[in-house]
Amino acid sequence: MARQKATRGRIRRRARKNIAAGHAHIKTSFNNTIVTLTDRAGNVIAWETAGSAGFKGSRKSTPFAAQVTADAAARKGMEHGLQKVEVFVKGPGSGRETAIRSLQAAGLEVTSVTDVSPVPHNGCRARKRRRV
């Protein structure tokens, strides 16, 4: 006779915060896009990645995946009352502008866009160039 497994899902829903303005951190790498919405102090309200939005493999690095990811994150943030965001973009990925446009299209008011990509002052040796 088969035994039943005890289901251990999330029991309680996220507590609804009421935050009008915050930050949107968009990290675009060559492999993935991560969108994190925080309040002004840096506490996470909502986040979404291209992988959690349903994309796998090389599709995660596309601009369309970044658009869907930013849209889903914006909807989650707006559930918590988020209306205005300052956007901080990091990384060399292909979905940078697409993600910002998607945040605006979802209904969030983008007040400023800042590029916070780490740029070395000639620190560690870079990886070798790809030859295709």
Characterize the structure shown.
With 132 residues, the chain is an alpha/beta fold. It is 21% helix and 27% strand. The chain contains 2 helices and 5 strands, in the order βββαβαβ. The protein has helices spanning 63-79, 96-106; strands at residues 21-28, 33-39, 44-49, 84-90, 109-115. It has a 5-stranded mixed sheet, covered by helices on one side. A hairpin with a 4-residue loop joins β2 (33-39) and β3. α1 packs parallel to α2 (96-106).
Keywords:
132 residues; alpha/beta; five-stranded mixed β-sheet; 2 helices; globular
What is the CA–CA distance across the termini? 57 Å
| SS elements, strand count | 5
- Provide a count of the helices: 2
Shape type: globular
State the major sheet: 5 strands, mixed
Give Rg in angstroms: 18 Å
Beta-strand content estimate = 25-35%
Mean pLDDT level: 88
Order of helices and strands: EEEHEHE
- Stretches where pLDDT is under 50 for at least 5 consecutive residues are none
